[in-house]
């Protein structure tokens, strides 16, 4: 008999057969949650570092998204000029992750505009369940237009510098912008095969799930479901974009120790574009080439930008004489 004092035996954990039946359903639910969080990640706690912490001149700017009115918060770090680099951070990060790159570009004399993507950092949020690619591309185009119209930046050429996820809109905005893009630097992305990249990301997330949820069937369900939900929410079209009609110079950077976006998948994207540069940062994890292969990273990035901006200036001179 069970005594009144103990109140009965503790509840038993679900049996193996029940857990085996429930696990795939839980994997499906986890996939939907993780897909939503991919585009709406939790905000980091605590104050964010700014360029002023590195002694850089900093102006704050807000660009209102033309797509749906979401405010996009940006830093403007003026340089010696005349050219500007618009910096776009990686998914789940904020513009603070690019401080090392901002300092590098500023030392080279470039103006820098760095902004928080929607649902990240200090920028506004949406609750959208679809057309996320169109929103991110439209937002970057708005930042481009605001940059070109900013009198503090003296009207030079503009380059884009994207990391991981933001490398996709950086490439896709080129044919959709009335403001010419002199160059795009794509660091740690984009993957050529986007669905395969999402399945890989799902597999990485699957390793953090409870042990009894890591069976082969559950992980397979979770991976395919995450790919389905994430792709439907993204609404990616025209990938990879056709840039053959544009003079935009392209540089792709893989990170040798990247477990999120393998360098060979970035190199495959680079091979899609004749004339694009590709380089692998030695010993670097995801988006960390600027720290792990610092000297070579600086030489290659700044050299590429110098050539791209020089070509843009010469093209502008020819246009003025026509």
Automatic annotation (TrEMBL):
Report if keyword Hydrolase is assigned: yes
The family database entries (Pfam families) matched by this protein are listed as: Abhydrolase_6
A GO molecular function held by the record: hydrolase activity
Q: Which family does it belong to?
A: Belongs to the AB hydrolase superfamily. FUS2 hydrolase family.
Q: Which species? A: Streptomyces lonegramiae
> What is the protein name given in its UniProt record?
Alpha/beta fold hydrolase
Q: Which PANTHER family match?
A: DIENELACTONE HYDROLASE DOMAIN-CONTAINING PROTEIN-RELATED, POLYKETIDE TRANSFERASE AF380
Question: Does Hydrolase show up as a keyword for this record?
Answer: yes
Q: Using the record's annotation, list all stretches that form the AB hydrolase-1 domain.
A: 85-287
Matching entries from InterPro entries are given as: AB_hydrolase_1, AB_hydrolase_fold, FrsA_esterase
